[in-house]
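Action item from last meeting closed. Structure (178 res):
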C-alpha cells in the first residue's frame, strides 16, 4: 500500500471494500440516466397527447448530438466517480492496526489508523432481510480513551471481519508481583 507505511514486523491481514452489490446499486441511477435520452422518444410515441414532443429528440441534428454528448458525458462522469469511490475506499486490517482509506473526491483522500492495542469494542450490525440473506453489514470499532471510532459500512461477512479483528487485538499482560 502506498497510502501508509507498514511498521517493521507488521503485515496486512485483510483488505476490504464495500459489497459489490451496493456498488451496483450506486451505478444504477447513472445507467438509467444514460438510457433515458434513447428511451424517452419511444415512450412519448406510446402516449398520444405527447407524440408531438418526440420530434425534439432528433439526434441527426448537430445541436441535439451535442446535447446528447453532454448528457452522456455527465452520466459517465458520475458513474466514474462512483467507481473511483468504490475502488479507492478501503479498510485494511494489519497485524497491529486498522486503517481506513476514504476517497472524499477525485483529488482528496483521507487515511486514518487505529492501533489494535487501543481497541476497546468491536460491534457488528446487520439490518434487514436482504442484507441478512446476503451477509452484508456494518462494523464499528471503538477505541479506549478518546472518542475515536471507525465504522465500516456495507461490508461482506461482517462477523468474520469482527472475529479477525478480535484475534489480532493484543491481550493485556498481567502485572508481575515482586
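Sequence:
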Amino acid at each position: 500500500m502506498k497510502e501508509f507505511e507498514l511498521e517493521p514486523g507488521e503485515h496486512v491481514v485483510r483488505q476490504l471494500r464495500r459489497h459489490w452489490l451496493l456498488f451496483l446499486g450506486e451505478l444504477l441511477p447513472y445507467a438509467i440516466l444514460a438510457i433515458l435520452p434513447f428511451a424517452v422518444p419511444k415512450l412519448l410515441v406510446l402516449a398520444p397527447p405527447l407524440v408531438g414532443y418526440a420530434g425534439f429528440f432528433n439526434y441527426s441534428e448537430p445541436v441535439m448530438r451535442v446535447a446528447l454528448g453532454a448528457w452522456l458525458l455527465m452520466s459517465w462522469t458520475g458513474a466514474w466517480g462512483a467507481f473511483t469511490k468504490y475502488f479507492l475506499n478501503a479498510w485494511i486490517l494489519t497485524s497491529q492496526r486498522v486503517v481506513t482509506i476514504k476517497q472524499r473526491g477525485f483529488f482528496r483522500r483521507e487515511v486514518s489508523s487505529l492501533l489494535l492495542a487501543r481497541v476497546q469494542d468491536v460491534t457488528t450490525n446487520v439490518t434487514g432481510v436482504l442484507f441478512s440473506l446476503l451477509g452484508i453489514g456494518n462494523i464499528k470499532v471503538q477505541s479506549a480513551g478518546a472518542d475515536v471510532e471507525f465504522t465500516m459500512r456495507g461490508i461482506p461477512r461482517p462477523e468474520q471481519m469482527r472475529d479477525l479483528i478480535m484475534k489480532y487485538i493484543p491481550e493485556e499482560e498481567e502485572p508481575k508481583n515482586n
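Note appended to the action item: The chain has a mean pLDDT of 88.
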